[in-house]
Amino acid sequence: MKVIFKKDIKNIAKVGDIKDVSDGYAKNFLFKNNLAVTASEGAIRQAEDKKASDAQRMEKARSQVEELSKKLNGFKIKAKLKFGDGNDTSFGSVSAQNISDMLKDKGFEIETKNILLDSNIKTLGEHKVKIKLGFNFEPAVSVVVEKE
Fold first, then answer.
1. Parallel, antiparallel, or unpaired: how do β-strands 76-81 and 140-147 relate?
2. Considering only Cβ atoms within 10 Å of each terminal Cβ, which end of the chain, N or C, has fewer?
3. Are 137 and 65 a contacting pair, CB within 8 Å?
4. Tell me, what DSSP letter sits at residue 31?
5. How far apart are CA 4 and CA 16, in angstroms?
6. Which domains does the chain show, CATH number per domain?
């Protein structure tokens, strides 16, 4: 029996997949648990249309993330910290939240959890910080720490 899956089933099928399954499996498990429907011509056409529109939506989202990645890659933001007399001790640090806030001021909405920072920045100079955007895009932003 041909069925169209309405939900993902691990190691068997994904949403929208059309597969041949045994009659008993379809009637006793898939239909009973609302996981699949019979693959009629109309249902097949509807599933294919949905897959096409989902693919189009995903491609649009991917291109938007790629565009954002290009804008962010190499983007410089400046942070000011107070330092002691010997220039080696900072009175504070630059955290992922600080970087997120600075990027927000520049028009980029980046969540703190997407900023890949091992530890807070406490030294002078330029530091590369990666940002996880999705679709395997990880642009690097330059954080320049200066004396206040």
1. parallel
2. C
3. yes
4. T
5. 6
6. 2-60 (3.40.5.10), 69-147 (3.10.430.100)
Instruction: Going from the first residue of the chain to its last (148 residues), give the mean pLDDT of each consecutive group of 10, the final group possibly shorter.
Output: 94 92 96 95 91 94 96 94 80 94 95 95 93 95 92
Residues 107 and 105: their CA atoms lie apart, in Å, by 6
Q: What is the DSSP string of 80-99?
A: EE-B-TTSS-BSS-B-HHHH
* CA dihedral over 8, 11, 12, 18, signed as positive or negative: positive
Which of 77, 96, 83 lies closest to 123 in space, CA to CA? 83
- C-beta separation of 100 from 132 below 8 A: no
Local structure of 63: helix, strand or coil:
helix
**Tokens 């565009």 sit at which residue?**
67
